[in-house]
Amino acid sequence: MPPHVFAYLDLASGSMIIQAAIAGIVVVPVLMRNKIRALLGRGKPAEDLDPMTPLDATDPERAPVSERAPGATLNDATGSDRS
Amino acid sequence: MTPDHGATRHPASWRDPSGFIYRRDGVLLRQVQPVWLEEWVAFRDSALARRLVAAGKLLPWQDSDIADAFDSSAAAVIRPETLPFVSYPYEWTFGQLRDAALLTLDVQSAALGQGWTLKDATAYNVQFRGVAPVLIDHLSFQRLPPESPWVAYQQFCEHFLAPLALMSRRDVRMGRMLRDQLDGIPLDLAATLLPGRSKLRLGLGAHLHLHARSQRSHAGDARKPTEVKIALGRLTALVESLRSTVAGLTWEPSGTEWADYADRGHASYEGGAPDAKEAIVRAMLESAVDGSSGGASSGSGGGEGASSGPMAWDLGANTGRFSRIAADLGYRVLSFDIDPAAAERHYRALRSAVRTDTTPLVMDLADPSPGLGWAQQERAGLLERANADVILALALVHHLAIGRNVPLPMVVDLFAALAPEAVVEWVPRGDPMVDVLLASREDVFTDYTTEGFDSAVAARFEVRTRRPIEGSTRVLYHLVRR
Predict the structure, then answer these.
(1) Is it the case that residue A68 has pLDDT exceeding 60?
(2) Nearest-CA neighbor of B447 among B401, B411, B478?
(3) Model pLDDT for residues B241-263, shown as the tens digit of each residue
(4) Residue B352 near chain A (CB below 8 Å)
(5) Is the pLDDT reported for residue B209 higher than 90?
(6) Among B75, B77, B388, B420, who pairs with B481 as Cys (CB 3.0-4.6 Å)?
(7) How far apart are CA A52 and CA B51, in angstroms?
(8) CA-closest candidate to residue B130, choices B333, B421, B392, B308
(9) DSSP letter at A74?
(10) What is the pTM of this model?
(11) How far is A25 from chain B (nearest CA, A)?
């Protein structure tokens, strides 16, 4: 593992400092939100979420064609051309 | 370091010393430099890479022979999957930019979970396969050193958060600012342009307004990334906070001139005219697919991502009625429209249907994307990327000729520059839409006649078929470039 990040971008001190500050602030509400969601059964805590879950599996709008309801088509997309 | 003959380095691939992309014998390849070989091999063999590709979030690739390298400095060569077309963030709808942002954050979240991080987060690292965003930069991944900050945090905010916030909270047309700001929208500028109440939103207040203020306050600092420590749990929370902020930015595509156009009736067509028009367009596209002119079926253009299968560009596509006909015939389709709301509605409908054959883009054909960036080659202009076998220009000519004052020969020249074949609808004087365009202005368009259009066409195309649309005064032309 490299000892430090390969930062070919200009990181800008201000961005790094505020990043650290925001990360320190949001960690508590984010954890709390995840716990509450877990208690309500509305989702798993972030640390338990499989980050590799395809969007398709979590967003009904993105369900693959093979998993969509029968008859689902592109009809919603159609309209008239511009005239 | 002398490059082999027959290889051309991509004009946009020079920022990251880890490697670069180039084209050899028409094939797009990526060279990995020695400085990045260890990281690349570790990533290539990782579960993260396999799972990202399997989830459709990272463009698949194949290892290639080192003999295919651009030059002798290569440590490895890979061959990414070919994309049919390369689009840019300033051509995307609001939803496309938002989905590209969420993809980037999802990938970063996944990477953090497995001890990796993205070392850059530019919007140009995302492309669309149909309506599915995919990360294309295989060298963006680095193993995360302990307690490191996210080095791409600022870049993410400038490339994604700032433009999305402006589009959502101020005006969707501000997405076009990305055309002038290739490195993303400066956060201080975004903070100035956003409504004051956006400071009260937790996510925007922190990641954008406070971020901009911190940049100003520490403008003179020369701090190394190793001097800032962030525990992994906090870094994960930061990414999750960014995701919530981006997900909370919304925009409803309505209220523009064309957004609801598809829902309204049209005086230009009577009775079964729309169906008749569809049937003629389908027949003309089928004829183009047959390829009797040699145009279709080859991906004949010299654009970035020519690949197999015919390509159709639908110019002025609105919400995509005729794009769908082309897609159903087997074309890969790019659907251009000037109206961000119409393009957004098209994008959402396609996303619901998970079509992988059509990509909507926002484009003003009277002012298409130019060559931009370093040497004006970093981001190619629209015409440089022209790779259509056939274009559809339905109910478009009168908007360019009368609405934008473009002379008919120049309109036809544009069509000829874009594709070897064209399906064009001619809307003559007397049509209700032409009357609307002329209602509030002086009629200076003495050349806007059927004879004038035929003359302009004859200079650049042969007319394969010419069919009036029953129930209207309009005529469809199937044109083959001379």
Answers:
(1) no
(2) B401
(3) 999 999 999 999 976 666 666 65
(4) yes
(5) yes
(6) B420
(7) 7
(8) B333
(9) S
(10) 0.88
(11) 9
